Amino acid sequence: MLMVILLVAMGVNVGGYITGSYGVNVDGYITGSYGVNVGGYITGSYGVNVDGYITGSYGNEQEQVLNSNIWLRFKWKDCNLVWNVSEYNGIESIVLPEDMIWIPDICLYDNSEYVLKGIKEYYRARVFHDGTVKYNFPSVLKSVCQIDIKHFPFDQQVCNLTFGSWAYTDNEVMVMNNKTDGDKTSYVKSSEWQLAELSINSYQRLYSCCKYTFSEVVFTIRLSRKPAIQLLNLIYPCMIISGITLIGFFLPPESGEKVSVSVTVLLSLAVFQLVITENLPPNSDSLPYLGFFFIANMVFVGLCCSMSVIVMNIFYSGERSKRLPSWIRFLFLECLAKLLCYPVNNKMVYTISQDNIAYTAELTPSTENTCKELSLRCSKDFWSGNHVTERRYSSSHLKLINQLRHHIRDREETRNLCKEYENIAFIINRIFTVFAIVIYIILSSVFNLIVYT
User: Fold this and answer.
1) CA 10: distance to chain centroid?
2) Among 256, 280, 315, where does a domain finish?
3) Any domain includes 1
């Protein structure tokens, strides 16, 4: 029987490897006493060694699957495929198609597709004279893997490839692997993922469906994401755009662009948020820290926008507001101004009346005179009467001059009041600037600390 098997296999299926008197029809081999579908009348336990060489692997976050390019290596011994080398011209091995010998029904338990590509088509097995069968083939596997994106883009994903027999128990087919570390020599480096670890473990499990145990080999793949692409395309631009918000505090309120800068930055962050959402699973058990970082940045930009509105509101409130209480002027124009190194212009206008003579004097530490026509520069000799020009007018002229004097006084008071509000607005703007810089530094530091640890 064995001679018929070998002659048929060598004469036809090797494709010219063996010629001459060994050629026999293939049908005679298939219909022989060797049982292909039952493993040659299984009389004992087959030990199937399952090994694999990972050549490429990457995770798909949106589909929650692991795509792997793997070279599978199956090895077992078939006692019905043994011959004496000396009797067959020293032939030690032959190559046979998979449908002419028994091949174990090894399947991928974690498979997300309906077939394990490569087992049933195109590839052949090598049979050795001692009954050893090696069935090697490359395959593209798409397996289920729960992707944890909490630390995206500094995450590590652990996925399993579980191989085992679907029909045979461990008493009939023992699926095993004697190694604990997988071979990574053929792995092709990826621009996004790095193969950090490849381990192999053999198990015997009892499932609820059956009363017998099944053997399986589990390849554990640990992938580390390379964050360079995400850092350059998402995180660093986000931090730079958020930092642009701080520039808005240095714009003068008269420009009218303080709020526009914050709104533009807020829209930019919303666009980045959409880009991240497209690359992550729609339903995830864990939310990425990067998402919280973007939300925190959007809250930060919104807070900066609110601060800019407050500053501009105070800046333009002088003409329609009352004079500030003395304690507010002391707190802002004296204490906080010195603390924040903000120079305050203390120019004030005083009006003096004596009999029917009207004098308008301006006390200022500067050399400017805002009312040159009806004002006098005041010096130490002003109060003693020196350097004061005195003019007497008729009652009608004096009335007109008094009206003009009151008008100028009201205008100067309004101007001084506006100046006070402007100074307070600038001081508050500096306070907000310091506060925003501190919040920005804390926000960036906390994100880096959480992600990198």
Assistant:
1) 58
2) 315
3) no
Q: What is the CATH number of the domain that holds 138?
A: 2.70.170.10
Asked if residue 126 and residue 86 are part of one domain, the reply reads: yes
Q: Where are the alpha helices (DSSP H) in 356-394?
A: none
Is 159 a domain residue?
A: yes
Domain, as residue range, for 62: 34-226
pLDDT tens-digit readout, 84-142: 888 888 889 998 887 888 888 888 888 877 655 544 566 888 999 888 999 888 888 88
Distance CA 321, CA 336 (A): 22
- Domain membership of residue 141 (yes or no) is yes
| Domain count across the chain | 3
Same domain, 100 and 213: yes
The whole-number average pLDDT for the span 137-149 is: 84
Q: Are residue 193 and residue 67 in the same domain, yes or no?
A: yes
Q: Which residue has the higher pLDDT, 394 or 369?
A: 394
Q: Which helix (H) or strand (E) holds 420?
A: helix 395-452
Q: How far apart are CA 55 and CA 163, in angstroms?
A: 18
CA distances from 15 to 49, 87, 95, 285 (A): 28, 21, 9, 55
Strands (E), 249-379: 348-354, 357-363, 376-377
Contact at 8 Å (CB) between 96 and 123? no
**pLDDT, tens digit (0-9, with 9 covering 90-100), for 336-382:** 888 888 777 655 444 444 443 444 444 444 334 444 443 444 444 44
Q: Would you say 61 and 280 are in contact if contact means Cβ atoms under 8 Å apart?
A: yes
Q: State the Rg of the chain over Cα.
A: 44
Instruction: Give the domain CATH number at 238.
Output: 1.20.58.390
Exposed/middle/buried for 290, CB within 10 Å: 0-12, 13-18, 19+? buried
Per DSSP bridges, beta strands 156-165 and 106-108 are antiparallel
Sign of the dihedral through C-alpha 228, 230, 235, 238 = positive
What are the angstrom distances between the C-alpha of 163 and each of 75, 101, 107, 218?
Answer: 14, 21, 6, 6
Name the residue with higher pLDDT: 387 or 401. 401
Could you say which of 226, 258, 288 is where a domain stops? 226
pLDDT digits (tens, 9 = 90+) for 436-450: 999 999 988 888 787
Mean pLDDT value across residues 204-227: 88
Q: Is the pLDDT of residue 227 over 70?
A: yes
Tokens encoding 425: 């607005």
pLDDT band of residue 416 (cuts 50, 70, 90) is confident
- Structural contact between residues 196 and 224, judged by C-beta atoms closer than 8 angstroms: yes
